[in-house]
């Protein structure tokens, strides 16, 4: 190796050493800044989570929704902190942002149906059209007591003790009847009587049965209304209000006692019938 080559190597080494010396303070400063940002950011994330958790509890938000939203907030803040830290170290974050966006798009397309149920679950838990313990009915004909409200599904227990799991997307996008939210229920019991029956007397008999029922509320006032001239009978509607827990007891007692009272008064309750006329030539 001649002197010229040795001089070139020495020059490159001196240049590298001088560059390292000039960049060392910047690197040390960047690393220390990144560590400080990470520590302060982690502390701020913990404080934000505590404040948000307190706000959720004050609003009496569902426990499952609280946990889910706290996890979302935690992941979002940590990703943001990671981007800030690597930016402080001099790393270009455009590639990270592009990767996160592409991954989000792919997951969204793959889980389109699940995301619909997820959005429905969020709406149900936030707007609270029903809660656990309510008896509801959907326009698809499914009825039952709400057993659980998850992020993706709502679970109902039917009066026959059957478990029904309904996707939240279906529940949130259709009409729901909540029978227990108002604290009371009003029955609409239809009773048909014969066409030759005295309707005023029939209404008085049915009203006496209502007044003697221990579960019937006086306010709002009960009603007995003639509603229809049917094919085989004159139909009356018995409308009485009671508490949710006594609704089925009252409904059963009204059916039994109304039939007994009408039988004693000699007022017939006809069943559907058809007259057949036979002609002989």
TrEMBL record:
It comes from Chryseobacterium rhizosphaerae. The chain crosses the membrane at residues 27-46, 67-89, 95-127. It is a multi-pass membrane protein. GO terms for cellular component: plasma membrane. InterPro entries: LSM_dom_sf, MS_channel_1st, MS_channel_C, MscS_archaea/bacteria_type, MscS_beta-dom_sf, MscS_channel_2nd, MscS_channel_C_sf, MscS_channel_CS. Signal peptide: none annotated. Residues 189-269 form the Mechanosensitive ion channel MscS C-terminal domain. Belongs to the MscS (TC 1.A.23) family. This is Small conductance mechanosensitive channel. GO terms for molecular function: mechanosensitive monoatomic ion channel activity. SUPFAM superfamilies: Mechanosensitive channel protein MscS (YggB), C-terminal domain (SSF82689), Mechanosensitive channel protein MscS (YggB), transmembrane region (SSF82861), Sm-like ribonucleoproteins (SSF50182). It is found in: Cell membrane. It comes from the Bacteria. Its main location: membrane. Residues 114-180 form the Mechanosensitive ion channel MscS domain. Residues 72-112 form the Mechanosensitive ion channel transmembrane helices 2/3 domain. Keywords: Cell membrane, Membrane, Transmembrane, Transmembrane helix. The keyword Cell membrane applies.
